[in-house]
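I am sending you the entry underneath: sequence plus fold tokens. Let me know what the token row says about the fold:
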Amino acid sequence: MSKKSRKKSSKTPSGRPTAKKTPLKTRAATQTKSAKTQRTPASKSTGTIAKTASHGAASKQLNSSKSAAAPATAAKAALAEGRKAPAFRLPRDGGGVVALSDYAGQKLVMFFYPRADTPGCTREAIDFTRLAGAFAAAGTAVLGISADPLKAQDKFRDKHGLGVPLISDEKHEMLEAYGAWGEKSMYGKTFLGILRTTILLGADGKVAKVWRNVRVDGHADEVLEAARSL
């Protein structure tokens, strides 16, 4: 066969040159590389978003816990036995004013109650009134404190014949200073409110004893015994 005949036979019937075939290995490698290039940014982006969202949620929860716990921690630290009692000056039932300095040189009991004229608070106030003479004989004054307005304190006193001064701390300044204001829970919900607490101060003005999460029954008698022992 002549050279001219061989050149003609290399063409397709239509006269166009036959396209060269790409080796299978080369095509497979090219497809794999292309797939990786497309997947990588999406995978990296999803992981980054998930990590950022998780970090944000954790930070929010942590900050919330810190802000809720900080006031209670500070108050408890200030109320350690042997520490000087925080000063206060607040209105009382009947229109007078009560200050810590009024009780200089004598022992003082302060019972903090959640709300005037509620069952537990009423029993507690009546018990301290019943023992008022015994406390006086032991050289100890008694004060009741809540966040109720003065009108509510006056009504509470008159309705139950209470014989101890009732202080109104509507701004929670004394409640917070003495650790009687903090987080509470009821029916699965948490909120800030008055924690039933009693503080006994010695004649030197220092904290002698602290009762937290008080159970009303028999409490006033227990406090009286502690005051007598000072």
